[in-house]
Design a protein that fits this description.
This protein has 13 helices and no strands. The protein is mainly alpha-helical and 324 residues long.
Length: 324
């Protein structure tokens, strides 16, 4: 199967994830709006109500996502892995994907234990790289370190997904052992896998500019017609900062500017949902194929794993727990 065929066949997971995310955003927006209106009418403190509703909404969404949302992404990775390694997928992709996740991770705790181990190892290696930027010193060094760290976090997200693919492929091994071996695959074949960087960042920047920019513009055209609510928020900000003896920058006292800020935030949220639901999986298929092909052709040896243990205390810690 080609990458595009696998992507199209597994789109059902993307659609379900999109619907789930839309519902989550609706919950957060609804609670934030109710909090603002309710507290504004009762205590004339709408901004506090907005913040309280926002926090409550985020907590509710985080709890729901922790127990349910992971299934969509994990099942999609499982099916993508089968597609790139076996060259075919079953008719009931969604049902088979959910079954693979259930069989591989009997509990939610098991899934997150494996993913935490993967990210902890990659993050520790990533911190060694960002240290080079910080060593330069000053604002320039911090800026370089921040840029490097951002890039590393993006790459780590893809590598974590690839490691999960490795876990699904080697169903005869414990999920924890396969997860650590998946980390070894990257460090064994790092040079071969670096060719994915252009695809990862190129598609990410393009989707951010096109999707995020377009939706930010649309939201601003809509929100700029509602100056009164933003004026009330501006007045509330002025009152809150005045009590602290500080002064809010004049730019934030203008309702049209607050409308722009809200539009950009909403645009980024919509971009994030669309990108993670549709664009990222498209990129992931190609990255996963390269990862699995490189790993299966050049499996990490015990010496490779021992070398990785020297570079990462986290890896050595997990290794001593009996994963290998």
């Amino acid at each position: 199967m080609s990458n595009s065929q696998i992507y199209k066949k597994t789109l059902t997971f993307s659609v379900r994830r999109l619907l789930f995310n839309v519902i989550c955003v609706a919950v957060v927006v609804a609670l934030s709006t109710v909090g603002f209106i309710l507290v504004e009418k009762l205590y004339d403190k709408g901004l506090i109500g907005l913040a309280a509703g926002l926090v409550l909404g985020i907590i509710i969404v985080a709890v729901i996502s922790h127990f349910f949302a992971y299934t969509y992404s994990a099942a999609q990775i499982a099916m993508m892995t089968r597609g790139v390694t076996e060259g075919s997928l079953p008719e009931d992709v969604y049902g088979e994907g959910k079954k693979m996740v259930k069989d591989r991770f009997l509990t939610v705790v098991g899934f997150y234990a494996a993913t935490r181990a993967i990210k902890a190892i990659f993050n520790q290696i990533g911190r060694l790289i960002t240290g080079a930027g910080e060593a330069i010193g000053g604002d320039t060094g911090k800026g370089i370190a921040s840029a490097i760290n951002f890039g590393i976090q993006v790459v780590i997200g893809f590598l974590s997904d690839c490691c999960l693919g490795w876990v699904f492929y080697f169903s005869d091994k414990s999920s924890f052992k396969a997860a650590l071996e998946g980390c070894g695959v990257f460090f064994k074949n790092g040079k071969a896998l670096l060719r994915n960087l252009g695809r990862i960042f190129g598609m990410g920047l393009a989707s951010f500019a096109l999707i995020g920019g377009a939706f930010s513009g649309v939201f601003y055209l809509i929100l700029s017609n509602f100056t009164e609510p933003f004026q009330r928020v501006a007045d509330e900000l002025i009152n809150v900062t005045a009590k602290d003896g500080s002064k809010i920058p004049e730019w934030f006292t203008k309702p049209e500017n607050l409308a722009l800020v809200a539009a950009v935030i909403l645009g980024i949220i919509v971009w994030s949902i669309i990108h993670n639901s549709f664009i990222r999986p498209f990129v992931l298929v190609g990255v996963l194929r390269n990862y699995m092909e490189a790993g299966l052709k050049n499996l990490p040896s015990e010496a490779d794993m021992a070398d990785l243990a020297k570079k990462s205390e986290k890896f050595a810690k997990y290794q001593k727990k009996g994963a290998f």
